[in-house]
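Example 278.
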Amino acid sequence: MIYRLVRSRRRTLSVEIHAAGTVVVRSPMRTSVADIEHFLRSRFDWIAGKVAQAATARSVIPVRSHANEFYHRGGLLRWEPSSEPLRTPRRHADTLLLPASLTATPLHAQKAVARWQRREAEGLFEELIARHLPAIGLPGLRYAGLRMRKMSRRWGSCSSSGTITLNEYLIRTPDACIESVVVHELCHLVHLHHGPTFRELNLTLMPWHREADALLDAWTSVLSDPPETTNGARSPVHQDTVGEMRTLTIRQAEALAPSLSNAEVSAEAIISGVRPSI
Ligand SMILES: [Zn+2]
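Predicted structure in complex with zinc ion:
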């Protein structure tokens, strides 16, 4: 098993299995590799299970076969320089034609695609909010506007002042996922928590939201594909490049050894006697 070891001034050891299937181990500065690998062996079944789950989840995502392809509303589009003079990008079926001046380098083209996608996202997000806001009733009056951000760990949020923030990378995922996140955030205009009353409202407004949310989980890996960090947003890929790659050899007997009883609950281990914060 290959894992990335990231040491920092933390007090506990943890394992993260990212959507791309990468195993990242975060450890205190002084924990020995022997202790770290003992911990990994004891959690091997759990880790292998999560890596397999991530692979299954990724299999619902179409595979990019060309550098010009990008994810858009759950499918793949491909950008191409237009042979005719164009002032702005124009979509034609699965192709996004870009003015030739915007395709001088792949990076230029990528930025032009990102700008186009951001405008598409804004239009779609506004449309979905307008469609579902009336169902919220009076609390809908608290809606204070839409903000869009590039985020690596969140799809959306709703502030107590009524501002809804949506991850502009949501435009890469299927429409059902986008709609479900929008409705989820609108429900927060009524309930600023995830308690039973929130869940009931969410289910009433969108009876199929659980399926959509599960699908969205599967699409998590497109948050970092391609790793576009033009505005300084940290993507998971960026974080993955920190640390040191190591290989852990697991002998058959160790892999079959029963995992520790709490391994199913949490991948956090208590090495220094301090409980990890949640
Ligand atoms: Zn929420």
